[in-house]
Amino acid sequence: MRHIAIFGGTFDPIHNGHLRSAVEVREELAADELWLLPSNRPPLRDRPTASSEQRLAMVMAAVHGEPGVRVDARELLRDTPSYTVDTLSEIRAEVGEDIALTLVVGSDALNKLHQWHDWQRLLSLANILALGRPDYELQLDAAVADQLGKAACDKSQLGLQSRGGFCELKLVQLAISATDIRERLVGGQSVRYLLPDAVIDFINQQQLYRR
Ligand SMILES: Nc1ncnc2c1ncn2[C@@H]1O[C@H](COP(=O)(O)OP(=O)(O)OP(=O)(O)O)[C@@H](O)[C@H]1O
Ligand SMILES: O=C(O)c1ccc[n+]([C@@H]2O[C@H](COP(=O)([O-])O)[C@@H](O)[C@H]2O)c1
């Protein structure tokens, strides 16, 4: 069965924590493709510092030439909050019923899943993969833990079922965050090796994340 992993984020900016996770998830799941989806108006946080266009440009520069990784800009084309359930419904309608879709969510984001719009429907559209992240233990809301617990399966199962499975993966675990990168830039510190040089060049060119 064809298998697509869907990894959404604010990516303000995209960094090596995201990128290493994307590459490893694709390998670990033996997924055919991994799609990065920059969100337009992230529902549960303040407005991003960089514009949608700038965040999209940084994501594209970061993964240029990376095999099997694609950038999907659909959420930037909708002027509504980027509800994942809407995005997955749209993707499901496009790819059809017989393709495995796996939504990739970091542990910090998953801990807030109970606040997501219509979160109960997510497993009817896709599998969910929880990504371990340093400094963020998985501490799920009780209702979420109950639903995901019932869906728990081995990672090898995710590519064999189109939706409805849940699995946790601990990958390389880089303690990098976009907040820390923005703070370093405001403070005039180096961010080299935390994110790709192409993204740093773009940030400098556009004078992003300055005081
Ligand atoms: N270092 C990391 N390792 C694994 N997953 C990560 C890492 N950083 C972010 N993620 C995950 O990537 C997705 C998008 O994250 P996001 O764009 O919000 O980055 P962030 O670094 O958490 O940003 P911010 O510091 O602004 O909150 C989320 O599911 C998040 O949990
Ligand atoms: O659907 C929702 O209500 C929802 C609420 C919060 C976050 N999300 C999605 O979760 C992903 C990670 O979000 P964030 O804010 O941690 O970058 C991103 O793709 C968001 O669109 C989705």
TrEMBL record:
InterPro entries: Cyt_trans-like, NadD/NMNAT, Rossmann-like_a/b/a_fold
Single GO MF annotation: ATP binding
GO annotation terms (biological process): NAD+ biosynthetic process
EC number(s) stated in the UniProt entry for this protein: 2.7.7.18
Chemical reaction(s) catalysed: nicotinate beta-D-ribonucleotide + ATP + H(+) = deamido-NAD(+) + diphosphate
Primary role: Catalyzes the reversible adenylation of nicotinate mononucleotide (NaMN) to nicotinic acid adenine dinucleotide (NaAD).
HAMAP family in alphabetical order: NaMN_adenylyltr
Record-stated family: Belongs to the NadD family.
UniProt name for this protein: Probable nicotinate-nucleotide adenylyltransferase
Gene name linked to the record: nadD
